[in-house]
Give the backbone structure.
Amino acid sequence: MDEHLSNLDALLRMEMRADLKGVLAESNTTAVYVTHDQVETMSMADRISVMYEGRIVQAATPVGVYRNPAERFMDGFIGNPPRSFLPAAPAEGGKWKVADQVFDGPAANGTALEFAIRPEDMRQDDADLVATAKVVEPLGAHLLVACDVQGAHVLCRAGQ
């Protein structure tokens, strides 16, 4: 099936995803489903394969791809909204400096890294990270806040 729900309105798409998943499960049928819609991918699949530049970069369960992306492309691609990235530099004591804050992390080998965080994993009281809110989007159950953190674009999800 190739993008077969793409021309439906949002409510009908949601209903059809559930119906299609139910029909496939009841009939014990395997289907190959092609889509660019991450909601369809994450909600309908038992396993997903993500292609980039003509090759499969990761094949796993939807939760596996979401929580353990195989490479940087996947880290910024999966999720809506996707992860934000901040530069991380080695600090004293085997720690890492991210936006003037020091965090534990992998063993430093002298190479700068990127700190990746999902909007839903940001907490107002987690650290003294200074962020300037640029845009606030009310999305019903939560707010999506686009921030600037030392020149980096960071997305945060906040409750209403």
Q: What stands out?
A: The chain has a mean pLDDT of 87. The radius of gyration is 19 Å. The helical segments are 10-26, 38-44, 62-67, 72-77. The beta strands are 48-52, 55-60, 84-90, 96-98, 101-103, 113-117, 132-138, 142-149, 152-159.
